[in-house]
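Hi everyone,

Forwarding the result from last night's run.
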Amino acid sequence: MKKSLIYCFALTAIIAMSRIAAAGDDFGIQSYPGAKSDADTQEVCAAPSMGIIKEREDSSGLTKSKHCYRTNDSFAKVVEFYKKQKGLKGGVVVDEEGAKSATFCLSKTGGCNEVSVGTSVAISAPWFVPSKMKMNNDLLIDITNRAKK
């Protein structure tokens, strides 16, 4: 009985920790402090790519893993955090009313796109949750790792 309670407690702690604030490392990139993962971010993270991006990913022969988080911190603060990450290359930053996005990558093959081996960070607002038909105005942080199969 005592052993079962210990296992139950350990399992509960692991599940709870998987839902708390992001901390540490995501595929070699430091997670944004205080960003959280929840059902909405996981749904967006699990959604398949579409169109030309899906075609390119499918033909690349790479495996893809993703972690998604959200934060209410300002776009500028989150972008500045990732700009300071060692090895990350900055990409396009769009900071307009109603549309904010930024991309960064840590490439192992020189390129920074859906067919490159390495890790990318995409920051965006607003973002959409299909099952709820809901637009969120906080920031979505999508960290994607692509590796050879």
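Residues 2-19 form the longest helix (18 residues).

Cheers,
N.
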